[in-house]
Amino acid sequence: MRFPVLLSLAAFGVFVAPAFAQSPAATPAKPANGGRWDEDPAWNEMRYGAWGGPGVDPTPGPMDAILLRDYAPRSSVVAPETVVPRAKFPAIDVHSHANNARTPAEVAEWVKTMDEVGIEISVVLTSATGEAFDRLADLYLKSFPGRFQLYCGVLGTDLDHPEYPARAAAELERCYRKGARGVGELSDKGWGYGAVRAPRDRRLHPDDPRLDLFFEKCADLKLPVNVHVSDHPSNWTPLDVFQERTPAYQHFNQLNQDVPSYEELLAIRDRAVARHPRTTFIACHLGNQGNDLAALGRVLDRLPNLYLDISARDYEVGRTPRAAVKFLTKYADRVLFGTDMGRAQRMYQAWWRLFESADEYMPGRVWWRYYGLELSDPALEKLYRGNARKLMNWQ
């Protein structure tokens, strides 16, 4: 049963996230003090900061009936809107997926868009092995040689079999011969790798010794490994009035699930990278630490074989532009451009505007307004293509 979610509670303008019956992370019916939300000090601090309130006396009105999921405020801010049709430097998108194009005609359409917006190469993270990878290799690599690189996956069956490490390494080498030039996206949001969810003490996380041979083979073949470990930290917080992201992201919520915590998963990632210093790892989505760039920088300082891709974290760098520019300048040799958001022309161009312009208060995907980074040419070139060219296997 789904409950309606309104923009206000009792006409006080309270933003709330959806609640679901029998959900352990559901929205509480009342604030902790049992009164009204606008009487709750924690709520007021979170909503208004030091101002202490909205500065007006809220009264009931038509907006009380607007669903949160439908809310799309039209800003009155008048600000420059820079159109950047093509990337300033030929770009390599290191994070795309095979569902972007499933037929030769769709691949051709994608290449046409790449040409229009300035994408030189797209890396397709297939996560596939066996015949599934072979079919994708035929689709992408034969039709448009030089425009795509494909990454394969890791075997996900019979994980407890004594021969699993050798079989996983052998399949990796076979996929390499078929055209794989990297591995990923290896996603572990707490359930580990594998086709079947295993008991918690038997899950195959990236720091598991069963993957030692596999990751060492990646190093031997010079195959970068794209890893998605953990997820955005908001996914471990309740789906209540303090939830940071909109209802569109609530299905990712891991609170009260049988998974390690956000911090435990990041520690697993770091142990895996440290365990295999010869292997190049790319933590996608800014390592799911784009909300705390200082902490992320300390991770990069500790782990020289760890790189990042910036895919799908436009909202992190766009909402903290000054910190983001400092980070992307200091770690200009460690961050790669990626999208992970389909293949629409306007999507690519939104990235160019974010990185290349100084525009303010741009619409964003999570209700968070973005601010252009106006990156320097040296940082921009490394982000767009320089770092990818350094790490990619071209054999």
Topology-level CATH name of the largest domain: TIM Barrel
CATH superfamily of the largest domain: Metal-dependent hydrolases
Would you list the SSEs in sequence order as H and E? HEHEHEHEHEHEHEHHEHH
| Anisotropy-based shape | globular
**Spatial strand sequence of the major β-sheet:** 1-2-3-4-5-6-7-8
Determine the mean pLDDT: 91
Q: How much is the radius of gyration in Å?
A: 23 Å
Give the C-level CATH assignment of the largest domain.
Alpha Beta
The residue fraction in helices comes out at 25-40%
Number of strands: 8
Structural class: alpha/beta
Per CATH, which architecture of the largest domain?
Alpha-Beta Barrel
Strand content: 5-15%
Instruction: Pick out the low-confidence regions.
Output: 1-24
Q: What's the SSE blueprint?
A:
Blueprint: H1 41-48, E1 91-96, H2 104-117, E2 119-125, H3 130-141, E3 148-152, H4 164-178, E4 180-188, H5 212-221, E5 225-229, H6 262-275, E6 281-283, H7 293-302, E7 306-309, H8 314-319, H9 321-330, E8 335-336, H10 345-356, H11 377-391
Parallel strand pairs: 1-2, 2-3, 3-4, 4-5, 5-6, 6-7, 7-8
